[in-house]
Amino acid sequence: MSNLQSDALVFFGATGDLAYKKIFPALQGMVKRGHLNAPVIGVAKSGWNLEQFRARAYDSLEKHGGVDPAAFEKLCGLLRYVDGDYQDRATFAALRKELGRAERPAHYLAIPPFLFGAVVEQLAKSGCAKGARVIVEKPFGRYLESARELEQQQRPQRGEPPRFQASRQHTCQTERQDEDWD
């Protein structure tokens, strides 16, 4: 896997509790320290627009760590929002459009594990997986059996394009298996 920095951050579950309590404060902190200069694309199904998404980020920061006006202004300039269902191909077409010229996006799945397979499949089908990394929020399955099942979903079937393969660190990367691809 390449050590090149990601050139976009996509986070699924962008209007959820984890985003509200932890992700937005972390993003502001990264901006403040100069570690985040790439587009940040939130994906969720809330019926929101970009302004509502930015308002949620502001409210989050007010309640969980404080708003740094300069860092928040820069963060707002990086924020994008895609509203849609994780199983709808149109959601991922909109995401592909928002990614623009990004070649190495990082997709953070702050969603329930039962949705991982559907999201990864749609990322692959839409072209959003090429050169990408996927980070899955723990737990990766509730038990060993479900973790193995989720990992199996990430492996391509014979003749399919590459998908993501989970590593022990709960991150994924696209990679072609050493198999014959018909």
What report would you give on this structure?
- This protein is α/β, with parallel strands linked by helices and 182 residues long.
- The chain has one domain (8-174): Rossmann fold (3-Layer(aba) Sandwich), CATH 3.40.50.720.
- It is built from 6 helices and 7 strands, in the order βαβααβαβαβαββ.
- It has helices at residues 17-32, 50-63, 69-78, 89-99, 116-126, 144-154, and strands at residues 8-12, 40-44, 79-83, 105-109, 133-136, 164-166, 171-174.
- A 7-stranded mixed sheet has the order 3-2-1-4-5-7-6, with helices on both faces.
- α5 links the parallel β4 (105-109) and β5 (133-136).
- α1 (17-32) packs across α3.
- Residues 157-182 have low confidence and may be disordered.
- Which overall shape is indicated by the principal axes computed on the Cα atoms? globular
Number of strands: 7
CATH topology: Rossmann fold
| Global Rg | 16 Å
Record the strand order, biggest sheet: 3-2-1-4-5-7-6
CATH C-level: Alpha Beta
- Count of helical stretches: 6
What average pLDDT do the residues reach? 83
**Integer count of domains:** 1
Q: Structural class of the helices, strands and pairings?
A: alpha/beta
CATH architecture: 3-Layer(aba) Sandwich
**What distance lies between the first and last C-alpha atoms, to the nearest angstrom?**
24 Å
Sheet of most strands: 7 strands, mixed
Order of helices and strands: EHEHHEHEHEHEE
Q: Tell me the helix content.
A: 40-55%
Low-confidence runs of at least 5 consecutive residues? 157-182
Percent in strands: 15-25%
What's the CATH superfamily, by name?
NAD(P)-binding Rossmann-like Domain
